[in-house]
Write a structure and sequence with these properties.
With about 90 residues, this protein is mostly helical. It has 3 helices and no strands.
Length: about 90
C-alpha cells in the first residue's frame, strides 16, 4: 500500500513540476511574472525532478543555467539511490 501511495505522489509531483516548468517558459516569453528558481528546485527536490528534467528539454527552459543542467540530474540520482535503498 505504501509503495502505491509513494508512486502516486512521485507521479503527481512529476506532472505538477513539468507543468510549472512549461508555464514559467510561457511567462518568460511574454515578459510576465516568473516562477522563482528556488521554487523550481524545491519542487524537484520534493519529488518532481523527472518532471523538471523533462520540462527543461521539452520547453528548452533553464538549459543554459549550469546549476539546472547539473543540479536536476544530481537530484534525480540522489532520489533514485534513496528509492533503491528502501525498496532494494
Amino acid at each position: 500500500m505504501g509503495q502505491k501511495v509513494l508512486l502516486f505522489y512521485i507521479y503527481a509531483m512529476t506532472i505538477l513540476t513539468f507543468s510549472i516548468c512549461g508555464a514559467d517558459k510561457f511567462a518568460a516569453q511574454r515578459q510576465r511574472r516568473r516562477v522563482p528558481e528556488k521554487v523550481l528546485f524545491l519542487l524537484s527536490a520534493l519529488g518532481g525532478s523527472v518532471g523538471m528534467y523533462l520540462g527543461m528539454f521539452t520547453f528548452r527552459h533553464k538549459t543554459k543555467h549550469w546549476y539546472f543542467v547539473v543540479g536536476i540530474p544530481l537530484i534525480i540520482l540522489v532520489q533514485a539511490a534513496i528509492l533503491f535503498y528502501f525498496w532494494g
